[in-house]
Amino acid sequence: xxxxxxxxxxxxxxxxxxxxLPSTPPSFSRDISVLCLSDLAVPSSDASPPLxxxxxxxxxxxxxxxxxxxxxxxxxxxxxxxxxxxxxDVFEFNAWDHVExxxxxxxxxxxxxxxxxxxxxxxxxxxxxxxxxxxxxxxFYRNNTSNFFKDRKWLFQxxxxxxxxxxxxxxxxxxxxxxxxxxxxxxPIISHNSNPNLKVHALxxxxxxxxxxxxxxxxxxxxxxxxxxxxxxxxxxPGLGAGSVDAVLMIFVFSALAPEQWAxxxxxxxxxxxxxxxxxxxxxxxxxxxxxxxxxxxxxxxNFYVRGDGTRVYFFEKEELRNIWAGEPRIERDxxxxxxxxxxxxxxxxxxxxxxxxxxxxxxxxxxxxxKMYRCWLQGLFRKPGGDExxxxxxxxxxxxxxxxxxxxxxxxxxxxx
Length: 418
Hints:
Layout: E1 21-22, E2 95-97, H1 103-118, H2 123-131, H3 133-143, H4 155-158, H5 163-166, E3 173-178, H6 186-192, E4 198-204, H7 207-215, E5 224-228, E6 245-251, H8 262-272, E7 273-284, H9 289-292, E8 299-301, E9 304-306, E10 312-314, H10 318-326, H11 339-342, E11 353-366, E12 371-383, H12 397-411
Parallel strand pairs: 3-4, 3-6, 4-5, 6-7
Antiparallel strand pairs: 1-12, 2-11, 7-12, 8-9, 9-10, 11-12
Helix pairs in contact: 3-7
């Protein structure tokens, strides 16, 4: 389940075409411009006489043209090095990294959220979408072929720990992917694999998605299985017992769960992981364009929406996500602890070590149409305590460092994505 990378024909499966934000001045109608510092730049008033012609140096190459900023990077959670500063031409490149939204966009977003809350999903429809969410994902995959999605080629760049499982010298390893969808995470891992004893369990709660996986030309039964499983349900995955998995991949899947399903999902992941095992996580952040553009009749509860095709999506805040995986109580908007958290026993508590948790904020632009789109994703690396602290396949921080080293050797000085 889930789609992740720009551009935005579909920020997540089942979402309608994006509402692009024009760069023209806001008219205070349904559209609003997305302003950047470059839009507000004022010409210099320096009236000093020009230097002699022979003393004038050519303008410096833009930092984004600097080869040092365009190397394939082995350090995850860096999220790029193309920074948008004052006096930059925002339309010089297709994307900018680490871009904070300006006040105009923040005001527009808050106005959108208020309008969304004022026109929520009806109680009848909320029950319809929440009672059987797998039904809507099955319909989605039935209506969209596997080539609808792009393979996540950035996986090994952002999660170099994967190389500690796929190298020819790696010990036997088991990877569980939750919400495998059409295989756009599992298949890239298999294609990079040199470990004869690697097994990837690609699971999804959509019957149709599993069928798409099994029928794909890249499906390799020697290294893969594909089965139906609901991560928020009461049972462990087919063929996997407690403490049997080295790493769990959750890429744009946690957001498809309702908030009351999070606690059970985290407990299931905790149970199936070996001590020292890791969760590799990426999902939507609050303020992402996909959230801001939602119209009337899509708001289910705070930061939680239903798309036109019936699939659901949640947009997380950084500290909220940290608390979920660290086992901290979830506090409702009324200040009370959630019912699901309050009912947990001490024995059931899953408390992961949050090794990494970063916010990936990017500004994507359409240079031809002069459009700007703010995107926001959260990326994490969570570890189940225990295991061999000195290293090993179980996903300790030492294994992560080994993965970075391998990635550095593989990537060399190749150029980055545009």
